[in-house]
Amino acid sequence: MEPVTHMLTGACLSRALGFPAKVRYATVACVIAAEIPDADYVYRLGGPLTYFQHHRGWTHALWSLPLQAAVITAAFYFVHRSQNKRPQRHANGVPPRWLLLFGLCLLALLSHLLLDWTNNYGIRPFAPWNPRWYYGDLIFIVEPLLLLFLGGALILPMLFSLINGEIGANRSRSSGRGLAATALVLMTALWGFRFMQRNEARTQARTQDYRSGPVQHMGLNPYPINPFRWFVVAETSSALELGSFDNRTGTYDTDTLQTISKPPVTPAVTAAKQSWLGRVYLDWARFPIVEDRGTVEQLHPDMDLEPQERTWRVVRFTDLRFGYPVLGMSGSRAPLGAEAWVDATQHVQRVFLGQSEQKLP
Length: 361
Known about the structure:
Radius of gyration: 24 Å
Order of helices and strands: HHHHHHHEEEEHHEHEEEE
Largest sheet: 5 strands, antiparallel
Structural class: alpha+beta
Number of helices: 10
């Protein structure tokens, strides 16, 4: 999920459990813990492919969560010690219960993994011993309904507090606890509803008559807001068929039906698959299309190219589970596409992830 949902979930967890009234630093620690696994963005310093290789890796593995919770708790312990050496201006009377704070951080970290599992990018919770990806395929990576539930649960108590301040009423330290709990219940209910809708859609989608033959592998990918609509990728022996399925009608949207034949495996494609990019991308992809698209000069005529680069072959990697037109994504230019430029000796010379180039060793 995107960062805002993670952090709102952390804040709602802390408030719903009543921790702000019991443990100092509870809410801020919970918000940090709910997002800290995405600190693997630091791998971006090594280039886009380095980040892609390590994203949702060890920081999203179950074994690392107690370590991350301990680091966050220790950070607040030292902050607390340093504050106690100075005159207290805003002491709130809530003691720092470190073991409870550690447990809350651990819970917030688990919420991060659960939220990431619900979308179709996936997580590797048992890496490095088991590098398998796990996917919930329930919620789009940006889900406005979750933002509405969680954000509303935090904003409404602030508005009530302003009103109470105007009329002179006292504000409870556990203000908003019921709303936060309700938001979490609604989030869980949305997951459950979409789980049922997805299973029904999969059952119905498998009964469709696919033009390229029997289905070997199928994936249903969520759209935002609409819980009844799914982007279907059905893989047969010779092609991948794409369509949009609606639970309410039990039929495909005929405007989105598309059959993509599996491209031939050229020498350039073989070299690209065996490269660093190929190994990382194919380990992650669920419905990959790896295609020799032509020469660099044909595909990138506006680029400033060296003479020898003009005849290199461009091998494009695409994962069709991200091929549906939502939030600007579409077709071969879907997010998380990649390119390998292969020379005449079948060596990969340049690599791009999206529009960013990865420097090769």
